[in-house]
Amino acid sequence: MGDFSSTSSCSRPILVLVAFSFNANRYGTFPFTGWTLHWYGQVFHDYQIKDALFTTLRISAEVTAVATIVGTAAAFPLVRSRLPFRSGVRIGMTLPIMIPGLLIGVSLLVLLTDVFHLQLSEQTAVIGQSVYTTPFVVLLVAARLQGFDPSLERAASDLGANTYQRLRHVVLPLIMPAVFAGALFAFTLSLDEFIITLFLIGAHNTLPIYIYTQGQVRDHARGERARDAASRGVAVPDRTRVRAAARRPSRAAARQSVTTPGTATREPLLRRRRHRVRRRGTWGTTHGRALPPLRRRGRRGSGTRPP
Question: Which CATH superfamily includes the segment(s) 61-204?
Answer without folding.
Answer: MetI-like (1.10.3720.10)
